Amino acid sequence: MVLKQISLSMPEQLFKASKEYTDEFGYKNLQEFILELLRKKVMLERMERYKSIEEEMKAGKNVKKFSQSEAVKYLKNL
Q1: Of the residues 1, 8, 29, 61, which has the fewest C-beta atoms closer than 10 A?
Q2: Gyration radius (Cα) of the chain, Å
Q3: pTM of the full predicted structure?
């Protein structure tokens, strides 16, 4: 896995509250806490999007007819 480094600026109050939360809930450091937040956010929104697509398909809205390989390709490009 290739790691990328970023720089993050935030208001001092949010920084202090985040550090307190990190300490209180046993994170090794603030970076670990932020990474977990990002993972959860990305995964949750992806799941919600797929659920929405599935509901539309069940209702017959915006349904396109694909072969299995075309469907996989289409979903990967969402």
Answers
A1: 1
A2: 19
A3: 0.61
